[in-house]
Design brief:
626 residues, alpha+beta, Porin, 3 domains, 3-stranded antiparallel beta sheet, elongated
Length: 626
């Protein structure tokens, strides 16, 4: 700090000397001008001879000595008040007389001695050296520019403006996105308006409007197919009122039908989901959710179609290796509608285990993205009987494999075994008894071999039950060819064989008399084995029609013998439901709008062994889903 004060005083002193020299020079010019004006008759200004010349000379000498060594100093020096001195000219001819300005803020500056002059020069030199050292230290403290960087000394203003606008725009987009994300996650502005569970629930649904024409063959004979569910409910064929004892096989029929389904998937926790679905339909028909229009304005029934829990488990590599389901669930099997109707839901428990066959270390497997073995097992109660331990169950197991190629082509093969337990009827042992009435099926369509389990003196008392065992072995193959993506070619094949059918067992159970439900007047003795079914099909187009302009067409051939499968659970549209039928199915779909499509299906079928029954069915649907 002392050094700073000394430097400041020195700079002020030098500045005052320079100002004094300039003032003396200006005063001399003024005196000369005044003398000339006096000679011309103008008044003159007097100059005091007592002003010492040595002060001006010394100031001039000091100024010349330090002029080359000056550094930055205050632009204004402090003014020292002095007494005003009047100078009177003694001789007008003396033009070199030095004088000073009569400004009261200035005073004569004393001359410097040689020692003072040298001290001043040394002080100035020290100031300069310290300034240079400070500048060098400042440059060293600055960060070094990276190698390859370009130093720009000047950037035009218009480029600066463009840079500012670009940075501002980028920042604005990033900030807006971050704010919106944070607002969505934290639900700004909606304090507790929606509970947390709402974000875990998704709603989905669909609606289908259908026109259906049932056109029967002219060769059909009326009154040949009994309506088994109605007869059983009435206690006998003769006890049925009106024509409902028979199925319609001759009168063409046109119907408008509708189907509506609404479901939810609720995330309970990580890996656990609860599924619910409501649909049209009724509690008496498990294989149809259609509602026929024309109820005289009555409202439709709504039933719980699905209600289940599902657990999906993934390993550390995010491989989906296990699925567990319980409740009333969707079909857990790889299958077609040859065995299971598409509207059928399963009640019980099911589990699917998957094992990956992919070898990531084998370069020769690069053409296959995924190879999986899977095993599905399930147990499903069909009918619970309170006063018996002979409840009816379905047990199933399916082993299969799926191969997915690099182009997303898929090949899937599955072999299933379905075991129906306690499904056959038992004749009442005591006359007029109803102990085994529960063995009659709660629902059936038509086709399977039946026998009367009533033991009554009344020959018209009837209660029909299944005569055969049903242990179905089902092989399903699906090949989705994606070489022409987005168009696919899907080939399918399904073969089923009821290996539980035993002719002697059927005859013994029925006491030699059975009834083939596909023809009322076809009571026979020994009944030969008719237990094979198969279906072959091809589909060309989009695998799923979900967008406007998507389309696909399908052609299937189906052959299903009388006791190949349980007729209660097979397709309810082909041959108007049931077994003992063969025929073709041609269908197509076209996307009218996103998630809205038009469907058409033509089904033509005939009976295989029973009384002749031919029927053509034309269905036109408008479908929408959300």
């Amino acid at each position: 700090m002392r050094f700073f004060h000394q430097s400041l005083c020195l700079c002020a002193f030098i500045t005052l000397q320079a100002w004094s020299q300039q003032a003396v020079s200006d005063e001399a010019i003024t005196e000369t001008t005044s003398s000339e004006q006096t000679a011309g008759g103008m008044p003159s200004t007097s100059i005091d001879d007592s002003m010492p010349v040595t002060a001006v000379d010394n100031a001039d000498k000091a100024s010349e000595t330090v002029s080359d060594q000056q550094t930055e100093a205050p632009t204004e020096a402090p003014k020292i008040p002095v007494e005003s001195t009047q100078v009177t000219a003694q001789d007008a001819s003396v033009t070199t007389q030095e004088s000073i300005n009569t400004d009261p803020m200035q005073q004569p500056i004393p001359a410097l001695s040689a020692e003072e002059q040298q001290a001043a020069e040394n002080l100035v030199q020290e100031v300069v050296e310290r300034a240079k050292q400070a500048q060098a230290d400042e440059e060293k403290s600055r960060p070094t520019a990276p190698e390859g960087s370009v130093k720009i000394n000047y950037i035009p203003e218009f480029i600066k403006d463009e840079i500012r606008e670009q940075v501002r725009a980028n920042l604005r987009a990033d900030v807006v996105e971050d704010v919106l994300t944070q607002a969505k996650n934290e639900r700004w502005g909606i304090p507790d308006a929606l509970p947390a569970w709402v974000n875990k629930v998704s709603i989905k649904g669909d609606i289908r409007l259908r026109t259906q024409d049932d056109i029967f063959a002219k060769e059909n004979v009326a009154g040949t197919y009994i309506n088994i569910p109605v007869v059983n409910a009435s206690g006998g064929f003769t006890k049925v009122d009106g024509p409902d004892a028979y199925l319609n096989t001759t009168e063409d029929r046109f119907r408008l039908r509708a189907r509506a389904r609404v479901g939810t998937d609720a995330k309970v926790t990580e890996g656990i989901k609860a599924g619910f679905r409501l649909s049209t339909g009724n509690q008496k028909d498990p294989v149809s959710t259609n509602q026929t229009l024309g109820t005289y304005g009555n409202r439709y029934q709504v039933v719980w179609d699905q209600a289940y829990l599902k657990h999906d488990n993934y390993d550390l590599d995010a491989y989906h290796w296990l699925t567990l389901m319980g409740g009333r669930m969707p079909n857990p099997w790889v299958s077609t509608d040859l065995v299971w109707d598409s509207d059928l839901a399963f009640e019980g428990l099911a589990a699917t285990y998957r094992h990956s066959l992919r070898d990531d270390d084998n370069l020769f497997d690069s053409d296959l993205n995924d190879r999986t073995l899977f095993l599905t097992i399930g147990a499903f109660p069909l009918q619970e009987v309170e006063l018996s331990n002979k409840d009816k169950w379905l047990y199933g197991a399916q082993l299969g494999a799926e191969f997915i190629a690099a182009n997303q082509s898929k090949f899937k093969v599955a072999l299933a075994y379905y075991f129906f337990d306690n499904i056959t009827g038992v004749r009442n042992k005591v006359a007029e008894s109803s102990d085994y009435d529960y063995t009659a099926p709660a629902y059936m369509q038509k086709g399977n071999v039946l026998f009367n389990i009533r033991n009554s003196a009344d020959p018209q008392a009837e209660l029909w039950a299944l005569a055969a065992q049903y242990h179905e072995l089902d092989l399903t193959l699906l090949y989705d060819i994606a070489n022409f993506s987005p168009l696919h070619i899907v080939l399918s094949a399904d073969v089923v064989k009821n290996i539980g059918y035993d002719q002697k067992d059927v005859e013994t159970r029925a006491l030699g008399t059975v009834e083939r439900s596909q023809g009322w007047n076809n009571t026979v003795g020994p009944t030969k084995d008719r237990t094979l079914g198969y279906q072959l099909g091809v589909t060309v187009g989009w695998p799923r029609v979900t967008l406007v302009g998507n389309w696909n067409v399908s052609l299937y051939y189906k052959y299903l013998e009388r006791d190949a499968v349980l007729d209660a659970m097979t397709d309810s549209d082909f041959h108007l439901g049931g077994t003992d039928a063969k025929g073709w199915v041609l269908s197509g779909n076209y996307g009218l709008e996103d998630n809205t499509w038009l469907s058409g299906r033509w089904i033509t079928s005939d009976s295989i062994d029973g009384v002749n029954m031919g029927v053509d069915i034309l269905q036109v649907d408008v479908n929408a889903k959300f």
